[in-house]
Amino acid sequence: RGSYWRAFYLARALAERGHYATVLFTHSESRWRFHVQLLGRLALVGAPDLLAGGLRSGWDPYAAFARSAWLQAMRVDVIHAFECRPSVIVPALLTRQRTDVPLVIDWCDWFGAGGSVEERPSRLQRLLLRPVETLFEERFRTAADATTVINDVLARKAIALGWIRLRSRASTMAVIPPIGLLIVGLRRGKGLDYRLIRRL
């Protein structure tokens, strides 16, 4: 739920400033239908997932397909993907390919090698999940036009993957204080310019 609240508070802040924002998240129960709640300029869209309980954490191929199909009809100006599990990264990459808008990827949990996968009780689970979690956590981040992180530990990991910290103060500016959104780096060429970043 941490990623949901990060996305929600950022989207709400944007909506309060006159932008339209949509938060697409995994609905707590729905298996087949999307559930939409409108709060002024903010749309909260609960997406279906065929898995149950704690398994509804981004791994369902149907969820990735359903979100991708739902996004086909959307007009977007920027995509901000929170984490890189399949139900998030697949629709994000397909939507960017279709629209050619900037893709920003957020990193607020360390799931892969050295992270929460090491807390799994079963050695077999750790052996099986470590490479999969690490692949999805790290493989797609440098394909983004920008990345955001929750703390300096993940900022260092992002930089190690190929992100170069900007000299500008904007590169480490906390955008929303209670969330701790840090801009690690921006790639130019897709309409993103770090000089345009302002405190919300």
Helix-strand layout with pairing:
Layout: H1 2-16, E1 21-26, E2 35-39, E3 42-47, H2 61-71, E4 79-82, H3 86-99, E5 103-107, H4 123-138, E6 146-149, H5 152-160, E7 182-186
Parallel strand pairs: 1-3, 4-5, 5-6
Antiparallel strand pairs: 2-3, 6-7
Give an account of the 3D structure.
The chain has 200 residues and is an alpha/beta fold. The chain has a single domain, classed as 3-Layer(aba) Sandwich (Rossmann fold), CATH 3.40.50. The chain is 32% helix and 18% strand. The protein has 5 helices and 7 strands; from the N terminus they run αβββαβαβαβαβ. The chain has helices spanning 2-16, 61-71, 86-99, 123-138, 152-160, and strands at 21-26, 35-39, 42-47, 79-82, 103-107, 146-149, 182-186. A 4-stranded mixed beta sheet has the order 4-5-6-7, sandwiched between helices. It has a 3-stranded mixed beta sheet with strand order 1-3-2. α2 runs parallel beside α3 (86-99). The longest helix has 16 residues, at 123-138. It is globular, with a radius of gyration of 17 Å. The protein starts with a helix and ends in a 14-residue tail after the last strand.
